Amino acid sequence: MSMTQTVRFEAASTLAIVVSSNEPLLFLSEDQKVIAASASFCQTFEIDPATVSGKGLSELGDGEWAMPKLTSLLRATASGSAQIEAYEIDLKRQNHKTRSLVVNARTLDDGDKDHIRLLLAVTDVTNARAETRLKDDLVREKAILLQEVQHRVANSLQIIASVLMQSARRVQSEEARGHLQNAHHRVMSIAALQRHLSMASGGTVELRSYFTQLSQSLGASMISDPERLSISVTVDDSTVDADISVSLGLIVTELVINALKHAFPDEQAGTIAINYGSAGKDWTLSVTDDGIGMPVGDDAPKAGLGTGIVEALAKNLQGEIQLSDTDPGTAVTISHQESTGLRPDLPETA
To answer: Which residues contact 134 (CB under 8 A, 6 or more apart)?
Structure first.
């Protein structure tokens, strides 16, 4: 077979492939005249196949393919100075909705070195883009609704906390009053979390600001003289999932309540320090006071509801509890080690 015959054969083969393709394809000359169009292209864009051959790209249909940017890119592709890869265009036709298209183009070596030919592939992504926008809209709507629900839950919790405190003031039994006050403090800690979640994004909670807000809430409800008792917070840049922050917040609440109730008798002054640090998946939480220390013997308090809550939450977080005498005061540390076996360093207490 001669060289000329070979070129003609390869050109005819390319033409046959384009015409029979199930994808929208255009076979173009260097000056962007249509050599062939696939049946899929004509069907997708409602163009009569009989009117396509020999027409310029800008003349197809009602002229909707006359796009200066596309024309310029095809010219640059033919000259070898550029390539069209996943270029997005909007096809606008009268009395039709705008369609989002992705086009790819390259020069085609069909054996004829004297004539440059272009293969233009077109993908209609209108529905895919619409589905993406719908998904994004639904995600935004869900986030707004979730924030609204969290805000309403926080408000409801504050109302419940107020009712509990009013009830505590009215009851005669000291034991009942203590239980109602403890319930009030726990509800307030959850309300603080809900307020924080309503301002958070992505379902994660930044612990420094959350623990700060939580300590302020506990201090406002339980410390009558801020000059005598205070709560400090030292936390690194850790963020955790919302469900984990709930457990950590409840642990902090119980430990702070316990310290305020038992560590500073007889109007003793002091500080409660909340510390949290993480390294990878390992983390350590501690609540330390500089009070009277751990009572022993008959003076040691019996394990109550708060102790059970802390133990259950720590177990749920796969953490280990360590109680130590800091002389003066007491430290309760909950640590979780994923792999290293070493406890992460806590931030230095301010």
So the answer is: none
Tens digits of residue pLDDT in 69-98: 889 989 888 888 777 888 888 998 888 888
Look at 151 and 333; give whichever has higher pLDDT. 333
DSSP at 175:
H
| Strand partners of residue 108 | 117
3-state secondary structure of 29: strand
Give kind and range of the element (H or E) at residue 18. Answer: helix 3-20
Residues forming a β-bridge with 273 = 232, 288
- What is the spatial distance between Cα 261 and Cα 185, in angstroms, rounded to a whole number? 12
Nearest CA to 87 among 70, 108, 65? 70
Backbone φ and ψ for 32, nearest 5 degrees, come out as 65, 35
* Closest CA relative to residue 123, chosen from 82, 76, 93, 89: 89
**Whether the Cβ atoms of residue 277 and residue 236 lie closer than 8 Å to each other:** yes
Provide the pLDDT for residue 238: 93
Q: Which residue has the tokens 């992505």?
A: 202
Residue 259's SS3 state is helix
Burial status of residue 280 (CB atoms within 10 A of its CB: 0-12, 13-18, 19 or more): exposed
Write the CB contacts of 298 (distance below 8 Å, at least 6 apart in sequence): none
Q: What does the DSSP assignment read for 290-317?
A: -SS----GGGSPPP-HHHHHHHHHHHHT
- Copy the structure tokens of residue 22: 């199930």
Classify the C-alpha dihedral 333-339-340-346 as positive or negative. Answer: negative
Q: What are the CA-CA distances from residue 341 to residues 52, 198, 240, 284 (Å)?
A: 73, 36, 21, 12
Q: Which residue has the tokens 């169009």?
A: 37
187: phi then psi, degrees, rounded to nearest 5: -65, -40
Q: What is the pTM of this model?
A: 0.52
